[in-house]
Amino acid sequence: LLEKYSSKDISFDICSCQFSFHYCFESEDKARRMIRNAIERIRPGGFFVGTLPDAERIWLNNGTNGVYSNDVVRLEYDDKEVLNDPNGKPPIFGAKFHFSLDTQVNCPEYLVHFPVIVFRLLNECGMELIYKKRFPDAIDYYLGMQEGRGLMGRMQALEPYPPFEGVRWIYLLCWECFQGTLSKSEWEVTAMYLVFAFRKKNNAKLKESICISDCFASISGLFLIVSFNF
């Protein structure tokens, strides 16, 4: 993206990538290109923040034939042969699954093995992990902070948007009965995501890339197999 900026010397304090980072993990080349575009012009001390499907929560197994669904979401893993192999593991790149969320999303997506991001792809670019939290944990964490709770209030994230005149809040009964605004199925979808933040180290430089697939092929502990055991 460097040639598209108004100035080649431009720099940024933060880069945010929400609900889209995982699409580049179809291949290692695409993942590297996206990461380079995202962090190349971040200042030392600047941040790269984003959200990802949580691979540890998306375990497609033989028992369900690689399919999970509830009232609002349906996921199906693409490679059934891996699922039927007791020793099979999803590939680091190109682990495709089909994701349908109500009427909003219906497209192929890719699992992201977080250790690959931490220990190679971003570390070799001079980025250090600041935090990684599952959505439910992040919500609890930020609700306990004055700034976080204030921001959620301004965003109206703690209640439905103001209704049309004369229309009752559709979640009022749910709030009164369960002290929350999400159904069980909606919370299950929420728990499928995580939030992360990396910070650029001082004097960080982009290093020559190393083939991730070769480096991780024999390290089974870094292959995240996904699970639907909510």
From TrEMBL:
Catalyzed reactions per annotation: a 5'-end (5'-triphosphoguanosine)-ribonucleoside in mRNA + S-adenosyl-L-methionine = a 5'-end (N(7)-methyl 5'-triphosphoguanosine)-ribonucleoside in mRNA + S-adenosyl-L-homocysteine
GO molecular function: mRNA 5'-cap (guanine-N7-)-methyltransferase activity; RNA binding
Enzyme category, top tier: transferase
The keyword Methyltransferase is assigned to this record: yes
Record keywords: Methyltransferase, mRNA capping, mRNA processing, RNA-binding, S-adenosyl-L-methionine, Transferase
Alphabetized InterPro entries for the sequence: mRNA_G-N7_MeTrfase_dom, RG7MT1, SAM-dependent_MTases_sf
EC numbers: 2.1.1.56
Domain MRNA cap 0 methyltransferase: 1-201
A GO CC annotation given for this chain: nucleus
PANTHER family, sorted: MRNA CAP GUANINE-N7 METHYLTRANSFERASE, MRNA GUANINE-7- METHYLTRANSFERASE
Protein's name in the database: mRNA (guanine-N(7))-methyltransferase
